[in-house]
C-alpha cells in the first residue's frame, strides 16, 4: 500500500483580510456568497470577518449581520470546519462570543512603528492586550489563533530583528494560541529570509508544527516563500482568493499570496490541500467580476487617476487599513 500523500492546510483569509481594504462597499450578500463558494471549493479554514468598530474598518461594519446569518450558523455546526474571527480587544471578544463564534484570532506587531500606526499602542502593550484576549477566550472554551505582523520589515522602522519576532511568537504560544501565523506584511521576504527566520525560531525551541506562513505577493515572491516555508517544515499557510488584500502602508503593492496559486503549486507537487481547483478558479472569476462591477457602479464618474489618488490617500492614512496582517 503506497504511503499517504503529504498534506497542507490552507487558511483562506479573503473574506476578512482580503476585503477589508476594498474602499467601495461590498454587500453582505456578496461576502456570504463568497464564503459559501470557498467552502464548496474545499476550503476547511476560512477567516470570516473582524469584530471591529465601523469607524476603523467600514468594510467590516456588517460583521454582526454576517455572523448571525443562517449560512454561517450552518457552517459553524461542522466540527471539521474552522471559521476564525479576528478580535482586537475584549469587547470584540464578547461580541463574537454572543454571536456564537467558536474560534477567534488575535494579533501583535513585532515592530513599534507598525504597532503604533495599526493599533495605537507599543509592542509590549499589544502583547498584553492580545494575551489577555486569548486567555479569556480559552477560558470560555474558544480556540485561539495568533498573528504576528511585520516579521521581516516595518514601513516606519525598517528591518525587523528575528528576536522581536520570537518575543511575539512565544507570547502568543504561551497564552494558549494553537498556532501562530507569521505575517510578511510588506511582502519583502525572500526564500532566504524565510528559511533564516524559521530556523531561528526552531533553534529557539519554537515547534514548527505550531507555525503558519502568511505571505504577501508585493514583489512576486509569495509562492516561492510558501514553498520555502514548506521545505522548512511549515504545513499551514494563509492565502486570499484572487490575491485580494494588501498592506495599507504600501499603496499600489499587491495583496496576499493568491489561494489559487498556492493550491496549484502544491497540487503539482503531489501535496494534498483538499481543494477542488476548478471550483476555486470559478470562485476567483466570480469574485473578480463582483468587485469590478461594484467599483464600476460606484465610481463610474471618476477617472482612473482620480480613483487611484483617492485610494492612495485612504490607504496612506490607514482609513481602511487597521488590523492589517
From TrEMBL:
SUPFAM superfamilies: Aldolase (SSF51569)
InterPro entries: Aldolase_TIM, HMGL, PYR_CT
One GO molecular-function entry: hydroxymethylglutaryl-CoA lyase activity
UniProt GO BP: ketone body biosynthetic process; L-leucine catabolic process
Lyase as UniProt keyword: yes
Catalytic reaction list: (3S)-3-hydroxy-3-methylglutaryl-CoA = acetoacetate + acetyl-CoA
EC number(s) per entry: 4.1.3.4
NCBIfam families registered for this protein in UniProt: PRK05692.1
The name this protein goes by in its record: hydroxymethylglutaryl-CoA lyase
Highest classification ranks of the organism: Eukaryota, Fungi, Dikarya, Ascomycota, Pezizomycotina
